[in-house]
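Last lecture ended with a question: if I hand you only a sequence, what can you say about the shape of the protein? Today we answer it with a concrete record. The protein is WD repeat domain phosphoinositide-interacting protein 3. Below, first the input exactly as provided, then the predicted structure, then a couple of comments.
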Amino acid sequence: MCMRVSPTDSGNSGILFVGFNQDYGCFAVGMQNGFRIFNSDPLKQLERHEFDIRDGTGVGYMEMLFRTNLLGILGGGNHSRLASNMACLWDGIKQQFVLEITCATDIRGIRLRHDRLTRLHRTDSRTLLQAIL
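The predicted structure:
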């Protein structure tokens, strides 16, 4: 379960995204200036990272890999570091991006499993049908 918030709707909170990990034990909050990770029960902040404003800061979508240090991140907000066609894998221990994937079209979401990383695109079915035929 996740929730995206439009930057214009988020008011002063700066929240762009809220989503749980696969076992609902943690949830991630993407913000205009970085992200935060919380334990669900008991409620406790586990990680907080704020990006440098010069590099761009917005995190519009996140996917945690269970309770590991790996996060799939898409840019968002008014000051996004990442283009809409780029997905990144963040290593919480190294505190840096360890993988960047750039695609020809916009990436709408990202899913992580222990053996696979999947990116989601919005595609016009007519264009896809023409490409197949």
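Comments.
1. The helical segments are 125-132.
2. The first helix runs from residue 125 to 132.
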